[in-house]
Every structure is written in C-alpha cells, then in structure tokens.
Amino acid sequence: METIRLAVIPGDGIGHEVVPGALKILERLAELHGGLKFEFEHYDYGCDYYLEHGEMMPEDGLEKLKESDAVFLGAVGDVNKVPDHISLWGLLIKIRREFQQEINVRPAKVFDGVRSPLGSPKDFDLVVVRENSEGEYSSVGGRMFHEEHEIAIQSSVFSKRATSQAMEYAFNLAGSRSGMVTSATKSNGIYHAMPFWDDVFKEVSMEYPEVSTTSEHIDALSASFVTRPERYDVVVASNLFGDILSDIGAGIMGSIGIAPSANLNINGKYPSMFEPVHGSAPDIVGRGLANPVGQIWTAKMLLDHFGYEDLGGRLLKAIEDTLREGIMTPDIGGNSSTEEVTASILERL
Ligand code: NAD
Ligand code: IPM
Ligand code: MN
C-alpha cells in the first residue's frame, strides 16, 4: 500500500468550493485502486489567516508543507482583505520559489460538448511549459522619484540555468508527444532578456535534433493561439508570457475554470504543487457557480505525477463523459452547480 501525503491549502474564495470535491475524487480513486491511500493535512493559510496573524502562513509554514509529498492548492487572493502582491508573494509565489518549483505545466485541449468562443474548433491539444521561478516575476527594482515624477523600475531576471531547464523539459515532453516545440519570444522589443532567451533556445534545440522548432513573438503567438490552436503542441514560455498564454489556452477551451496546472520541483528536494490555473473568483463566490473541472483535472495531473496514469486516465474520461452529457457549470454553457458536476464525475469513476 502506498500512502501519498498531501498538504491541502484551499486558500481563498472558490478554492474552498472546488477543493473538497477534488479530494473526495482522489479518495474514491485510491479506494478503487486498492493499493493507494491519501493522507490529507489541511492548512488554513490565506487572506483570513493574514488578517488574524499578519502573515499569509506561519514562519514554520514551509517546513510543515515540506513534510508532505505534494501540495494541493485551490486559489489565493482577496483584494478586499489583502493587497494581491502581498498575498501572492506571501503564499503562492513563496511556495513556488522556496520549493524550487521551476517548471509550470499547463495543458489545454478540446472537450466535446463544451461551449468555446471558437465555435467548433479543430481538435487542439497543447501544453504550455512555463518557466516558473524568475523572469518578469522579480522583486528587483523599486518605486522612487526622478525629479518630481514618480517612477517604478522593475528588472527581469533570466538565468541560463532556469531558462534552459524549462526548455529541456519542453523538448523532452515534445519527444513523448508530436515532437514540436514553439518558443514564445519578444526579441524584437525586449532588448536584453529575449535575445538571450532565443540564444538559449537555439542552443538547447541542438540537443534535440528529432524535435522540430518554431519561435514566435508573443503578440502574434497569442493571436494564433486563438485563430489556429491546432498548430501547437508544446509551447515554452517565460514566467509572464506563460501565465498569459495559459489563460488564453484556458479561454479557448471555454473557460479558465477548466484549466489545470502542475508546479514541478524536478530536483526531488521539495514537494511539487498542484493547482488550477484560475484564481479565487471573488465575483462568483458562494453561489455554486464555480467550475470544479480545473481543480479536478489538476488532481489528474497529480495522479500522473505519482505514476498512477491509469487512475489519471480514468479520471479524465469521467470528466470528458460528464461534459459530453452537458453536465457543466454556466461559464461553459451549462446550468449545473459545482456540486452536481463533481457528483457526476465521482459517479462515473
Ligand atoms: P480569477 O481566475 O479569479 O477570475 C477571472 C474570471 O474567471 C472571473 O470572472 C471568475 O468568475 C471566472 N472564473 C475563475 N475561475 C472560475 C471557475 N472555476 N468557474 C467559473 N468561473 C471562474 O482571476 P482574477 O479575477 O484576475 O483574480 C481574482 C483573485 O485571484 C486575485 O486576488 C488574483 O490575484 C487571484 N489569483 C490567484 C491565482 C492562484 O492562486 N493560482 C490565479 C489567478 C488569480
Ligand atoms: C497563476 C496566477 C499567478 C501567476 C498570480 C496569482 C501571481 O495568475 O498561477 O497563473 O501569475 O503566476
Ligand atoms: Mn495566471
């Protein structure tokens, strides 16, 4: 019997509405498997915790989380309680960085029966591999006055190590898929970092002669994601470009409520973290409108990560069958509640 110890952080907003259902599904799948067990350790870190304690998690928070095999997170952020840059840098981004989760994997694909803004899109199935620890997400810089004008300076940091590591991950992934990597660049406008990005991409691509490559500017690439998503397989991007592209990927699927993600620690020193792409969705909180599919598909990525691809496949099929039957939340054209969609997926396992 294998036991997987999960640190569970529902976080804020709809995190509390979508996480419990995904945990039930994980437990049910473990039961069906027979040789697998989950142990959940619940943590109340988030904006309410901040209001009470003045920080997003306690000083020994990371040490506690480190005892688990993985972190399963809902969403973080509630601007009515804590400014976003404080809450996110105090919890989500802190975990990603301190646990060296330097690779963020974010798939997007067509689901039958789901309302997409593309109408009836060609069958796309792509993965955004996002560098998850540096780039444009940097605390280097500051706000100051230059003569009488206030200015803000924000430096991006691109290391060859983390850049090439994200690219290598993308190439290896492409090797197990259709064998194509697209690099998201902006070397026409971003003077230092993006020509560097292109050089590293060329260098890494030499090691993978069997994988074909293209390099596209992020602006044109964003348009092309919408008009011809079927052209893409694996797309490697910097932290910010990958953030935006993965939301476009989610948007063309029909809703950011569907999209999953894995923040991977690939040196094995720390737990990885699994969370949906969407945020805490304050505008729909408490109304049963939250699409649980992003969190549940995230559970599938977790199962795959631990080598339970059979269970992961079973879960994806249950999601697909549920959506095909029209059992879905309003964001993708249905009229079912969070609980009804979750129950339907549970039943189909
Ligand atoms: P958001 O993803 O929370 O919401 C954007 C829009 O998508 C909203 O209209 C929302 O109702 C809708 N939406 C999101 N998830 C949905 C779901 N599961 N089902 C149905 N509809 C859904 O993004 P935002 O409004 O930019 O951010 C709100 C808060 O969440 C902010 O504090 C932000 O910083 C935070 N945030 C956190 C994460 C994270 O923890 N990973 C990610 C993104 C945003
Ligand atoms: C995401 C989110 C975060 C990010 C925010 C909330 C800091 O948008 O996980 O996509 O930009 O990484
Ligand atoms: Mn995002």
H/I helix tally: 12
CATH fold category name of the largest domain:
Isopropylmalate Dehydrogenase
Main β-sheet, spatial strand arrangement: 2-1-3-12-11-4-5-10-8-9
**Helix content class:** 40-55%
- What global shape is seen? globular
> What fraction of residues sit in β-strands?
15-25%
How far apart the termini lie comes to 20 Å
Structural class: alpha/beta
- Please mark out the parts with pLDDT under 50 across 5 or more consecutive residues, or reply none: none
- Please give the number of β-strands: 12
Sheet of most strands:
10 strands, mixed
Ligand catalogue = nicotinamide-adenine-dinucleotide, 3-isopropylmalic acid, manganese (II) ion
Average per-residue pLDDT, rounded, comes to 97
What pattern of helices and strands is seen along the backbone? Answer: EHEHHEHHEEEEHEHEHEHEEHHH
CATH superfamily of the largest domain: Isopropylmalate Dehydrogenase
Q: Number of folding domains? A: 2
The CATH class designation of the largest domain is: Alpha Beta
Structure report:
There is one protein chain. The protein has 349 residues and is α/β, with parallel strands linked by helices. It folds into two domains: 1-105 and 259-349, Isopropylmalate Dehydrogenase, CATH 3.40.718; 116-253, Isopropylmalate Dehydrogenase (3-Layer(aba) Sandwich), CATH 3.40.718. It is built from twelve helices and twelve strands. The strands form two sheets. It has a ten-stranded mixed sheet, with helices on both faces. Helix 11 (309-324) packs across helix 12 (338-347). The longest helix has 19 residues, at 15-33. It is globular and about 60 Å long. Residues 243, 247 line the site of manganese (II) ion. Manganese (II) ion is lined by residues 243, 247.
